[in-house]
Amino acid sequence: MSEPSYKTIEDVIGQTPMVRLQRLPGAANAARGNVILGKLEGNNPAGSVKDRPAMSMIRRAEERGDIRPGDTLIEATSGNTGIALAMAAAIRGYRMLLIMPEDLSIERAQTMKAYGAELILTPRSGGMEYARDLAEQMQREGKGRVLDQFANADNPRVHYETTGPEIWDETQGRITHFVSAMGTTGTITGVGRYLKEKRPGGVRIVGAQPAEGSRIPGIRKWPEAYLPRIYDPAQVDELVLVSQADAEEMARRLAREEGLFAGISAAGAAWVALQIAEQAENATIVFVVCDRGERYLSTGVFPA
């Protein structure tokens, strides 16, 4: 009898399920033939869509000989990438230094530490821009290697190779709209490129960005100097602004009306998907549920 083949944590990243919203779209959308689907990236082992690029960036850097186990890795993060990199570093044997603004949720910081990462907290006033500058400074000082999710081609590449094909297959090629929150822009760039190649002109790629004055974890509108180098605007057809109030209310509604406990940026993408559906007919709209709601319990978004 042959030995059973057991999977590792790394092996179960990706192939996440997709679910149909049932109550939020309402009867009118059903009558117009619209379907709204959420891709449950919170089902990844470290709990977010960032598991894919985190493992991709480390594995491919190893293949190129850029890093090797025992090295120190550095990354500026708003949370999910840091958690995913902390997991990946634990799997592959790296010291992980994560730089993040001090106002991000307690749950995220605690989860990173649970994986063995070391945290460097930066002032809230500096935002992610300050954290990114500090990471680059530490690399120049020889304190470690920055993977740089914002400029690393292995980020969108993994979405082109895995997330996009999964969505295409799960909808049997019926997808008409793809909606993603925009942070590092790796997801929307990689998935957008794949879907546009599969059906040129037939899939509309829509990015969710925060409205003026809104602070939505995981969604950013970057100043020009900090725009991620991996971002390819040719892959994005439309940008929709989401208010913090709308994203937070949608997070509560997803949990209460759909049983879908999602993070705030995922809820922002869901809000955009529902707006699209109001104007569409016979549409198959997919949005990324990039993480789970447990990471936001301390923020007060969900009632105690």
Report on this model:
The chain has 304 residues and is of the alpha/beta class. It contains nine helices and ten strands. It has helices at residues 26-31, 51-64, 80-92, 106-114, 127-140, 154-170, 186-198, 244-258, 264-278; strands at residues 18-20, 35-40, 72-76, 95-101, 118-122, 145-146, 177-181, 204-210, 238-242, 284-289. A six-stranded mixed sheet has the order 1-2-10-7-8-9. A four-stranded parallel sheet has the order 5-4-3-6, with helices on both faces. Strand 7, helix 7 and strand 8 form a beta-alpha-beta unit. Helix 6 (154-170) crosses helix 7. The model has no long low-confidence stretch (mean pLDDT 94). Residues 9-291 form the Tryptophan synthase beta chain-like PALP domain. Pfam families: PALP. This is Cysteine synthase. It is an enzyme of class 2 (transferase). Its cofactor is pyridoxal 5'-phosphate.
